[in-house]
Amino acid sequence: MNYGRTSMIDFLSKIAMSFSGFVATIILTRTLGQERYGAYVVVLSVLAWITIAGNLGLSTAIKKRVSEADDGNYVVSGAMVQLILYAIVAACLWVVRPYLNAYMEIDATAILILLLAVKLATDFIQSVLDGQHLVHISSLLSPIEWTSRSVVQIALVLSGLGVVGAFAGYVVGAVVAVLVGAYFASFDPSFPSRRDFDQLRSYAQFSWLASVKGRTFLSMDTLVLAIFVSNSVIAVYEIAWNLASLFSIFGSSVSRTLFPEMSRISSMEGANDEIAEMLRVSLAYSGLFIIPGLVGAAIVGDVVLTVYGSGFQTGYYILLILTFARLLYGYQGQFL
Fold first, then answer.
1. Which of 81, 115, 269, 316 is least enclosed by beta carbons within 10 angstroms?
2. 291 CB-side CA count, 13 A
3. Do residues 73 and 190 touch, judged by C-beta distance below 8 A?
4. How far apart are CA 110 and CA 100, in angstroms?
5. Residue 150 and residue 122: Cα distance in Å, rounded?
6. How far is the C-alpha of 77 from the C-alpha of 82, rounded, in Å?
7. How far is CA 253 from the centre of its chain?
8. Helix or strand or coil: residue 70?
9. How would you class 96 by CB atoms within 10 Å of its CB: exposed for 0-12, middle for 13-18, buried for 19 or more?
C-alpha cells in the first residue's frame, strides 16, 4: 500500500465531507435558529455516547482481527454481536425515554433509536473495510454520507420540516454510505466458530476504554453544557468545535491509514524499526494543517463565525481554546 496516497485520499475525502457539512450547517443554523439547532446537536451528542454502549469496542476489535489476515470469520461474528448489542441498548433507551426526552428538551427517543441503528451500521462497515486494508475505499464513505446527508437536510429543512428534516437527512446519508461500503466489503458466509467470538472479545474488552477516552474528549462537553445552559449557547459552542475539528483532519487521516498497517507488521519478526519509522512520519505530518489553522483562527476567527449568523461571533475565544486542544489531541492520537 502507498501510505502517502492512501492518507491523501482519506484527507481529500474529509475535505469534501467538511465542505458539504459546512454549507449544510450554515443553512441549518440560519433556518432553524440557535435554539433548534442546539437541540439537534444535543441529540447527536447523546447518540455519540450511546453508540459506545451499542459497540463496546467491537468496531476496533473487528478492524484489528480482520487486519491480521488469519482464517477467522470476524465479519459475520462481529455482525451477530453488533445486532445483539443494538437490541439491548435500544430496549434500554425505550424504557428511560421520559427522562431522556426531558434531558434533551425534545421528544426524540424514537428518532435516537433509529439514528443509533444507522450509526452502528456505518461504523461496522467502515471497520471491515479498514481491516481488509481498503482504507482508500472506506475513506470515501464519509464524504458520500455527508454529501447525501447535507443535500437531504437542506432540501427538507428549507421545505419547512425543521429539525425533523435534519434528522431524516442524517438517516438517509448513513444508509447510502452503508450500501456503498457493503458493495466493496467481502465476507465468508459460513457460520463463525467460538474462537472467532473469543478473539473479538479478547480485544474489545480493552479497546472500549479507548472509545470512552475519545468520546469524552469529543462529546462530554456538550452533554455537560446541556445541563447548565440553553441550547442556543450550545449551538455557538458546537460551531466553534466544528471549525476546530476541521483543522485536525489531516492528522487523523495519517493515523487511520497507518493503524492497520502497523497491526499487520507487528506480527512479523524484527518489525520494530519499520513501525518506529511509521510513527516518525506520522508525527512529522500531524501538525501540517492544525498549526496554521490555530494562527488563522486567531486572526480571522471572529469574522468566519459571523457566516453562521448573528450571535455566533461570541464563540471566538472558544474557537481558539478548542483549536489548541485539537492540536494537542492530534499528536496524542498518533502515539495511541
1. 269
2. 7
3. yes
4. 11
5. 17
6. 9
7. 12
8. coil
9. exposed
Q: Do 133 and 7 form a contact (C-beta atoms < 8 A)?
A: no
pLDDT digits (tens, 9 = 90+) for 66-97: 777 667 788 888 889 899 999 999 999 999 98
The letter for the amino acid at 98 is: P
93, 50 in Cβ contact below 8 A? yes
Grid coordinates in use for 114?
Answer: 433509529
All three cell numbers of 72: 477467522
Dig out the grid coordinates for 284 from the structure: 512529522
Within 10 angstroms of residue 35's Cβ, the number of other Cβ atoms is 14
- The candidate with the shortest Cα–Cα distance to 182, out of 135, 131, 119, 138, is 138
Tracing cell 475519545 back to the chain, one arrives at: 214
Polymer length in residues for the chain: 336
Q: Are 188 and 75 in contact (CB under 8 A)?
A: yes
Determine the Cα–Cα distance for residues 184 and 12; give it in Å rounded to an integer: 20
Nearest residue to 236 (alpha-carbon basis) of 166, 151, 333, 322 = 322
Cα separation values, 182 from 78, 176, 237, Å: 14, 10, 35
Type of residue at 85: L
Name the residue type at position 49. Answer: W
DSSP-derived secondary structure letter, 9: H
